[in-house]
Every structure is written in structure tokens, then in C-alpha cells.
């Protein structure tokens, strides 16, 4: 396993390059990039079809930087410099434990002041370069795909918060023991929490910019499936604990790699299992029994489902149907993988189920309802 990018580079090239990047975080970033690409493609396609439209905005140009803008840029620059200079001056600690560096109150005052001045001066010069003797208002056209930068930021912030909230609800005993540590930890993220909260934020921003909810949902279906597939690569490569139950069954095919059938996740980032003999460092544990590598199964299945969604998007005519199909596919995939995945079980009326099983069932039924609604109201939605 490769808990950090440095471990991966050492595996490939035999050279240890100390970098403060964990593998899971890198693949989360790549998942956002993949989603950005798919969302943008769908925005442009639906605009070309006349289903969504650009909007006119009135902007004032030629104004100098205001005091509020200078102060906000200075504050932002101070935070960046405060942490960046401290991290670089304590690089070994940053590489070995980036979370401690980033979430502690320690930092460089001089670095913060330097970057505060730099960011404020940069904003001042930028606005001054375009300053007019008399500011004027202009009308600009904003195409829907140009919202992607804003949507990605809001989806990332609220998605992360939602993922943390749902994860702590799922692991309530751990949260009660250390609530602050659980909330601030970079590990422990629940996909459905991110999907629900991040999706809600995207819908609100889209609605404010004239994009109707059903069209926004349809745009997001394929992109979210692709992003999920890419993100799960990070779960598998880092060994973040999203693996399956023990699998002691013999391989059905001799040519099948062990990591595709039953794997012990050596050097996993979750530090689960028994110590590895001779291993020195932070990530030196390995599971005592091989388990189903469920993250890689989800990578494969989710990518196949993305290809199906990408293929059928041209023939789906009714608003809401694409997202309904996405919900049904997502719910079905996640429900069945939960059958062989390690997870917290809930008891209700003698029935045992996991949080993901419950939510995936709700999503499937919601998707089915959305598909039926689209079919039943196709005439009403024709001009939606």
C-alpha cells in the first residue's frame, strides 16, 4: 500500500522523495478534476440543446480596491503565510504528520505578515491597473459552465463537512470519546454524507444562477459516478479502512492477482492489523487475514456505470430521468458491496443494517420514483 505519494514514488523508482501529500488526498483532488470535466461537458451540451441558458449580469468595472477587499486579502494572505512558512521550516514534521502542522495553532508570525502585505499589495496593484477615472457598469454574459469554479468550491467545502458528520454519526462511540479529534481528523469520510450536503450546496448555487434543479441533477449524475470511481482508487491504494470482510476462499482463477481477490493491505494508512516485522516508520501494520478489496471492486463497477450513463445521456429526453437512473445505479452498487464490507451495524426491530445500506436503499427508491415521475409527467416537463 502507498499511504503517501512518497511511498508510491519509492515503489516505482526506488527513490525516497519526502513529500507532504497523502495518496488518498491526491485521488480526492483527481476525483474533483474528473467531475469538473464531466460536469463542464454536460453544461455545454445542455446549453447547446437550449435546456439551460446563459444569464446577464451587471458588473461595475474600474473601481479601485476597497478597504474591505484589502483587509480580506491581507487576512487570507496572513493565514497562508502563517502556515506555509512554518510548514517549510519544519518540513520533516510536515512530511511525517501534515495534519498536526495544518490543524495546530502554531505558525510563523513573520511569514504571515509578509504574505498579508503581499496579498494586499497584489490586490491593490491589480485593481489600480484597471482603474478608470469614472467607474462604469457593464453587462456581461455568464455561461452555465463558467459556474464550475464556484460549484466545485462549495461542493468541496460542504461535501467534506457532510462526509465528516455522517462518518461521526456512523462511529458514534469513537466520536463521543474524542469529538474534537474526530471532527478535525482528515480521515473518516462517508461518501453519502458528502453526496447529500455537497449536492444540496450545488443545487442552491445553480438555482440562484437560473439553472433549474432537475437539469442540474441530470448534469451531475455522470460526473458524480466518475468522481466516485476515481476517489475509490485512493481508498484502495492508501488502505484507508474501507475494505471488506475476511476472504479465506481460494482464488477462482490462478491468474487473478491477490490484490483483486484477497488482500492484507500492508502499510495501510489506517494503521489497522498487526505490526510488520522489520518495518520502520509510521505505517507498519498489515491485516492478520486477507479481506475482500472492496474499494477496487467499486472503482471498476462505478467506472462501468459511468460509461453507461455517458452513453445513454444523448437519448434521455425527460428532465430528472438521468439523475433517477444514477441514484438507482449508485444505490444498487453500494447496497451489494455492503454485503462483503466491514461496517458498523444498526439494530432496528430485530433487523441489522449499515448506514450505507439504509441510505442506498432510500436512494434507489428515490431514483425509481424520479424515473417514474419523469415518465408520467413527460408532457409537463417538455418545456421545463
From TrEMBL:
Superkingdom of source: Bacteria
Iron recorded as keyword: no
Keywords attached to this entry: Cell membrane, Lipoprotein, Membrane, Transferase, Transmembrane, Transmembrane helix
Membrane-spanning segments: 20-39, 101-124, 145-166, 186-206, 295-312, 358-375
Hydrolase recorded as keyword: no
InterPro entries the record matches: Lgt
Any single GO CC term annotated in Swiss-Prot or TrEMBL for this entry: plasma membrane
Family: Belongs to the Lgt family.
Protein name: Prolipoprotein diacylglyceryl transferase
Organism in which the protein naturally occurs: Pedobacter frigoris
Phylogenetic classification of the source organism: Bacteria, Pseudomonadati, Bacteroidota, Sphingobacteriia, Sphingobacteriales
Amino acid at each position: 500500500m502507498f499511504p503517501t505519494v512518497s511511498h508510491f514514488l519509492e515503489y516505482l523508482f526506488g527513490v525516497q522523495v519526502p513529500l507532504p501529500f497523502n495518496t488518498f488526498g491526491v485521488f480526492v483532488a483527481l476525483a474533483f478534476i474528473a467531475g469538473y470535466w464531466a460536469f463542464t461537458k454536460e453544461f455545454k451540451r445542455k446549453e447547446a440543446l437550449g435546456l439551460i441558458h446563459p444569464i446577464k449580469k451587471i458588473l461595475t468595472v474600474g473601481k479601485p480596491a476597497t478597504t474591505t477587499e484589502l483587509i480580506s486579502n491581507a487576512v487570507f494572505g496572513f493565514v497562508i503565510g502563517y502556515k506555509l512558512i512554518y510548514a517549510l521550516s519544519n518540513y520533516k514534521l510536515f512530511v511525517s504528520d501534515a495534519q498536526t502542522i495544518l490543524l495546530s495553532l502554531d505558525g510563523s508570525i513573520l511569514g504571515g505578515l509578509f504574505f498579508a502585505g503581499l496579498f494586499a499589495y497584489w490586490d491593490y496593484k491589480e485593481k489600480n491597473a484597471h482603474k478608470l477615472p469614472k467607474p462604469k457598469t457593464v453587462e456581461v454574459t455568464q455561461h452555465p459552465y463558467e459556474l464550475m469554479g464556484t460549484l466545485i468550491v462549495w461542493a468541496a467545502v460542504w461535501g467534506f463537512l457532510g462526509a465528516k458528520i455522517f462518518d461521526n454519526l456512523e462511529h458514534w462511540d469513537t466520536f463521543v470519546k474524542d469529538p474534537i479529534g474526530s471532527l478535525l481528523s482528515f480521515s473518516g469520510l462517508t461518501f453519502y454524507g458528502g453526496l447529500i450536503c455537497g449536492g444540496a450546496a450545488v443545487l442552491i448555487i445553480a438555482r440562484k444562477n437560473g439553472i433549474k434543479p432537475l437539469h442540474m441533477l441530470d448534469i451531475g449524475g455522470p460526473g458524480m459516478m466518475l468522481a466516485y470511481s476515481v476517489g475509490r482508487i485512493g481508498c484502495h491504494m492508501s488502505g484507508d479502512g474501507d475494505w471488506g470482510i475476511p476472504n479465506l476462499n481460494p482464488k477462482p482463477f490462478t491468474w487473478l492477482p491477490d490484490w483483486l481477490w484477497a488482500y492484507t493491505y500492508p502499510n495501510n494508512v489506517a494503521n489497522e492489523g498487526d505490526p510488520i516485522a522489520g518495518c520502520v516508520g509510521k505505517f507498519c501494520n498489515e491485516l492478520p487475514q486477507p479481506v475482500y478489496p472492496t474499494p477496487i471492486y467499486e472503482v471498476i463497477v462505478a467506472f462501468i456505470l459511468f460509461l453507461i450513463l455517458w452513453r445513454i445521456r444523448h437519448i434521455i429526453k425527460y428532465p430528472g430521468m438521468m439523475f433517477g437512473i444514477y441514484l438507482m445505479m449508485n444505490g444498487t452498487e453500494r447496497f451489494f458491496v455492503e454485503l462483503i464490507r466491514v461496517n458498523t451495524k444498526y439494530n432496528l426491530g430485530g433487523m441489522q443494517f449499515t448506514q450505507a445500506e439504509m441510505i442506498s436503499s432510500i436512494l434507489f427508491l428515490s431514483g425509481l420514483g424520479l424515473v417514474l415521475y419523469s415518465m408520467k409527467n413527460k408532457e409537463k416537463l417538455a418545456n421545463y
